[in-house]
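Justification of resources, computational component.

The compute hours requested in this renewal are based largely on the per-chain cost of generating structure records like the one below. Each record pairs the submitted sequence with a full structure-token output. That output is archived, and it is also reused by downstream analysis tasks.
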Amino acid sequence: MGASMEQIVTKTFTKAVLVTDRFHVQKLAYEAVQEMRIAYRWEAIEQENQEMELSKEVGRTFVANRLENGDTPKQLLVRSRYLLFKDKSKWTSSQVHRAEILFKLYPQLEQAYELAQKLGHIYQNTKEKGVAFTRLARWYDQVEKAGFKSFNTVSRTIQQHYKTILNFFDRRSTNAAAESFNAKIKAFRSQFRGVRNISFFLYRLSKIYA
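The structure output for this chain reads:
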């Protein structure tokens, strides 16, 4: 999605159809949810610090507030990180219980989680480009109505790149193969702690992976 990368690809592959990879679009939505979780965590830490100071002032032993599952609000927000990346169907029993408490305390976080999951479901369940356009437009409208600042980047990205995002639904193309090969090259390069002779390095790559 970077402007420089788009320019490079456009000039190098003049007849290619550009596709914005679904992984990077969904990643922005998941990061927006995590940004909200972290903001709530800082608030919980600040609240706990204030309660500790107050306990000192009145000469009492500080006792942290414990929730139903034994977590403090601060611990709840830390331990909820991974469940917010998953679909509800993939949660463990402990994650289900934790999510119930989390969303009860922070209903806006539940709304943000649902928005991120809906974007993933559009990619998973939509086969036609026209249908995808309609569903993305509805999703974009829901994001705007929610008014979450952390989702501003996601909505702007979709607005600016919607044509290349929709191109995914023509053939459901991703750059997974390229990412996999890139990981192999990096692993191969790390064995030599850098490359001095680029030509010979490329020659060896072609012999091993061609």
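The radius of gyration is 23 Å. The chain has two domains: 3-171, 176-209.
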